Amino acid sequence: MAEVITNEKQGGKSRQSKKRIGIDMTPMVDLGFLLITFFMFTTNFTKPNVMDLGLPAKDPNPTRTDNIVIDQRNQITFIIGENNRIFYHQSNEKELTEAGLKETDYNGMNVSKIISQAYAKAPKKEIFTVIVKPTDDSNYKNFVDMMDNISIAKKERYGIAEVKPWEKKVYENVIK
Predict the structure, then answer these.
(1) Where are the transmembrane segments (predicted)?
(2) Rounded to two decimals, what is the model's pTM?
(3) CATH code, domain carrying 82
């Protein structure tokens, strides 16, 4: 509340005295906290971003696919490494060497072009599969970039797997 303080002189000539006005700011502090609390409870700070994974529809007549082996020419494997590095190969356990594990980057459309080139060379295009294998040192952003590149290449058959021990051995030799 406002309070008016006056000083009166006694005796002598009477002059109009100056009045000091003092304002009590205590209720304003309460109002400020109420407004801050109101806006904190009614605002959305950030909305979660969700990435859609294209999952296949449930087949009414399922067939067993346990014994299907995908030839290395019908697949391409990407290993997501540390420091925004990505490697790829189309080899099996016996044929993979350090020279066969090639490196590319996320700049431009490199990964999409590699997928498209491997698809063009695949003998059975209907079962062509992209395999993504993130290492323990990779980050989530690189994984999302890889999934975006698969989407850009318009490939619907892909898998996410762990790095096999024989791939990890070659990968570790290449990054040294």
Answers:
(1) 21-41
(2) 0.62
(3) 3.30.420
Q: SS3 letters for the chain?
A: CEEEECCCCCCCCCCCCCCEEEECCHHHHHHHHHHHHHHHHHCCCCCCCCCCCCCCCCCCCCCCCCCCCCCHHHEEEEEECCCCCEEEECCCCCCCCCCCCEEECCCCCHHHHHHHHHHHHCCCHHHCEEEEEECCCCCHHHHHHHHHHHHHCCCCCEEECCCCHHHHHHHHHHHC
pLDDT tens-digit map of 19-65: 778 888 888 899 999 999 998 888 877 777 776 766 667 777 776 65
